[in-house]
Amino acid sequence: METFTPHTLTNRNALISGGHSGIGLAVAAKLQAAGAQAAVADISSPNHLPVGITSFSCDITNAAQIDNLYGEVNAHFGHPDILISNAGQGIHEKLTEGDPAKWQKVIELNLLGALRLIRAFVPGMLAAGSGDVVFISSVSAGQAYPYGGIYAATKSALQTVAETLRLEVLPTLRVITIAPGVTDTAFFKNTISGFHTADDIGYGALAPETVADAVLYALMQPPEVSVNHITVRPTLQPF
Fold first, then answer.
1. What is the band of 1 on the pLDDT scale with cuts at 50, 70, 90?
2. How far is it, in rounded angstroms, from Cα 162 to Cα 154?
3. Which residues are CB-contacts of 202 (< 8 A; sequence separation ≥ 6)?
4. Most exposed among 12, 43, 95, 103, judged by the fewest C-beta atoms under 10 Å?
5. What would the pLDDT profile of 184-203 be if each residue is shown by its tens digit?
6. Dihedral angle of Cα 186, 189, 194, 200, to the nearest 10 degrees
7. Cβ 10 vs Cβ 30: under 8 Å
8. Are 28 and 53 in contact (CB under 8 A)?
């Protein structure tokens, strides 16, 4: 029986959107500890960042700020060869009563923000001849539930984008989707019109570091192996 031998991440450059807290920060810390150079981009002020992680301010719904981020990242450590699209926001509104302006905000961030990152950074990864693109999705993708239509739709669309990108960039790049279940982060606090917490949902919750471990597992496969989708959820969570 063969055993898994991790592939090194030493000297690889990673950019993580939404990296100032939660899953994004946990991923950045794990990458840094594994030997990669990690940079995070976020619209919010950063929590305490591990030593060596560089922080950039960027609203990924803003095309001009994406262009600026591209220049800053390249000036800092060259073109990234790991791109992690993590920034996102939840929304909990009934379709017949919700606010379309709020829906548009979530679609701009969760879906179009990821597309802008692809358009800005993936061509350089292709030109370099290797790299990994990681999307942080959700078990909500493909799972309809009351008041969750807009959020679930963005994550379903994101997974379609990920699979399309995989087909367009193989065999040069690997594309990975991580779909977490309930995770103990500020996600619920920042959900638009939301009222749930990780505790009151009642399934238990993952630590963000657990999700980050899934990201690292996929990235540390040898180049000829692609782990394209990982679902990780609390054992009690039914979907």
1. very low
2. 12
3. 236
4. 95
5. 999 999 999 988 899 989 99
6. 80
7. no
8. yes
Q: If you count DSSP H runs as helices and E runs as strands, how many of each does the chain have, helices first?
A: 7, 7
The answer to whether the beta carbons of residues 132 and 83 sit under 8 Å apart is yes
Q: Which residues are bridge partners to 178 per DSSP?
A: 136, 230
pLDDT category at 5 given cuts 50, 70, 90 is low
CA 20/CA 26 separation, integer angstroms: 9
The residue written with tokens 């679902």 in the block is 231
Q: 134 with 218: CB under 8 angstroms?
A: yes
Pairing of strands 37-42, 54-57: parallel
- Is the predicted pLDDT of residue 46 greater than 90, yes or no? no
Name the token pair of 150.
Answer: 């807009």
**From the centroid of its chain, how far is CA 104?**
19
147's enclosing H/E stretch is none
CA neighbor of 152 nearest in space, from 111, 188, 187, 197: 111
Three-state DSSP at 188 gives coil
pLDDT-derived band at 50 (thresholds 50, 70, 90) equals confident
CA angle 36, 164, 120 (to 5 degrees): 50
Phi, psi of 190 (to 5 degrees): -95, 0
The CA distance from 8 to 12, in Å, is 9
pTM attached to this predicted model: 0.95
Please determine, for residue 88, whether its predicted confidence score (pLDDT) is greater than 80: yes
What domains can you pick out in the chain, each with its CATH number? 13-232 (3.40.50.720)
